[in-house]
Specification:
Layout (H helix, E strand, L loop, with lengths): L8 H9 L4 E7 L6 H14 L4 E5 L7 H4 L8 H6 L4 H4 L1 E2 L5 E3 L13 H12 L7 E8 L3 H8 L3 E6 L3 H18 L3 E9 L2 H17 L5 E9 L2 H8 L4 H4 L4 H15 L11 H13 L1
Parallel strand pairs: 1-5, 1-6, 2-4, 2-5, 6-7, 7-8
Antiparallel strand pairs: 3-4
Helix pairs in contact: 2-12, 6-13, 7-8, 8-9
The structure holds adenosine-5'-diphosphate and magnesium ion.
Length: 289
C-alpha cells in the first residue's frame, strides 16, 4: 500500500528541482471551530489544483482527521515514536493521493514528548523520499506544548476563528502565548462558519482590534472565510470531506478560495529546499523545550 514512499533515487533527483515544501500549522484558541475540516478540505482543494499534501494529525488526544477521510489507520504516530513501525507503515492514503500521519486516540499526549522523541519524529518525516508541496499540521486547540511546538516549527501559522467572541478572545490568547514563548509575530487568519463575507471581515477586524488592545506586537493577515454550511456536517456523517461530497456547496467554494490564497502566499525569504527550514526551526524549538 505504501510502496511508493520508499527511498528512490529518481524521486530525490526530482525533489531537488521542486520548490520547497511549505509547512503550515492550523491552530485555534478554542476547540470545535473547524480546524480538522479546514485541514482535510484544504488538502482536497490543493489536490484539485495539482498540489500534493502530507497531513499530520497532531491533535493526539482528539485526532479525527482519518474519520473525515473515511480511512481506518492500523497504526498511528505512537507506533512510529515507539519504533514499532516505520513511517511507511504508519502513513495512510486518503483521497487524491493525500497522505495522512494519524494521531493516537487518547493514549499518549504529544506534550509529554521529550526533545529526543521530537527529533526522532522529524527524522522520520525527513526520511520520506516522496516530496510534498504542502504539509498541513492539525495541532488541536489551546496553548499546550504540543501546539506551541508545531506552530513554532511551521512556516505559516494559520489561526482559525468563528465570528463568535469566545473564539476571537481565545485566538488572541493563543497568539499571545506564541509571541511570548516562541517569538512568533506573524499569523494568518481563517474565519470559519460565516453568514457572509462581511461577517468574515468583521471578525478579522475584531481580532486585530483585540490584539492591539492587548498590546501584542504581531501582524495578522486575513486569508479567507468559509461560509457556515450544513453540508459540512452532512458529509462528515458520510465520512467524507465536503469538497468530495458536495463540491458545488458554499463551503467547498470557501475552501477552494482558501487553497488559491495559500498557493499565492510568498515563501519566507530564508526558505531553502525540502523541509529544511521547518526542521531547523523544529530543532531549535526542541532544544529550547
Ligand atoms: N463551515 C462549516 N459549516 C458548518 N459546520 C461546520 C463548518 N466547519 C466545521 N463545522 C462543524 O463544526 C464541528 C467542528 O469542526 P472540526 O473541524 O472538527 O473542528 P476542530 O477541529 O476545530 O475541533 C463539526 O461538527 C463540523 O462538522
Ligand atoms: Mg479537530
Amino acid at each position: 500500500m505504501h510502496k511508493e514512499i520508499g527511498h528512490n533515487a529518481q524521486n530525490n533527483v526530482q525533489a531537488e528541482r521542486q520548490p520547497p515544501t511549505r509547512v503550515i500549522s492550523i491552530s485555534s484558541g478554542k476547540g470545535g471551530v473547524g480546524k480538522t475540516n479546514t485541514v482535510a478540505n484544504l488538502a482536497v482543494a490543493l489536490a484539485r489544483l495539482g498540489k500534493r499534501s502530507l497531513l499530520m494529525d497532531a491533535d493526539l488526544g482528539l485526532g479525527n482527521l482519518d474519520l473525515l477521510f473515511g480511512v481506518q489507520p492500523e497504526y498511528n504516530i505512537t507506533h512510529l515514536l515507539s519504533g514499532a513501525k516505520t513511517i511507511d507503515e504508519v502513513l495512510v492514503k486518503g483521497p487524491d493521493n493525500i497522505l495522512i500521519l494519524p494521531a493516537a486516540s487518547g493514549v499518549q499526549e504529544l506534550t509529554n514528548l521529550t526533545a529526543d522523541e521530537r527529533l526522532s519524529l522529524i527524522a522520520h518525516l525527513e526520511s520520506l523520499s516522496v516530496k510534498f508541496d504542502i504539509m498541513l499540521i492539525d495541532t488541536g486547540a489551546g496553548i499546550s506544548d504540543n501546539v506551541l511546538f508545531f506552530s513554532g516549527a511551521s512556516h505559516d501559522i494559520m489561526v482559525v476563528v468563528t465570528p463568535h467572541g469566545a473564539s476571537i478572545t481565545d485566538a488572541c490568547a493563543l497568539m499571545k502565548a506564541l509571541l511570548k514563548k516562541r517569538g512568533e509575530r506573524s499569523f494568518k487568519l481563517l474565519v470559519n462558519g460565516v453568514k457572509s463575507r462581511k461577517e468574515g471581515l468583521e471578525a478579522y477586524r475584531n481580532v486585530v482590534a483585540l490584539a492591539s488592545t492587548m498590546r501584542l506586537d504581531i501582524s495578522v493577515d486575513y486569508l479567507a472565510c468559509v461560509p457556515f454550511d450544513e453540508n459540512v456536517r452532512r458529509s462528515a456523517a458520510r465520512r467524507m470531506t465536503v469538497m468530495e461530497a458536495f463540491p458545488e456547496s458554499k463551503a467547498s467554494m470557501g475552501y477552494e478560495e482558501l487553497a488559491r490564497v495559500v498557493l499565492d502566499l510568498p515563501y519566507p525569504a530564508t526558505m531553502k529546499g525540502g523541509m529544511q527550514f521547518f526542521w531547523r526551526r523544529t530543532f531549535d524549538a526542541a532544544n529550547r523545550a
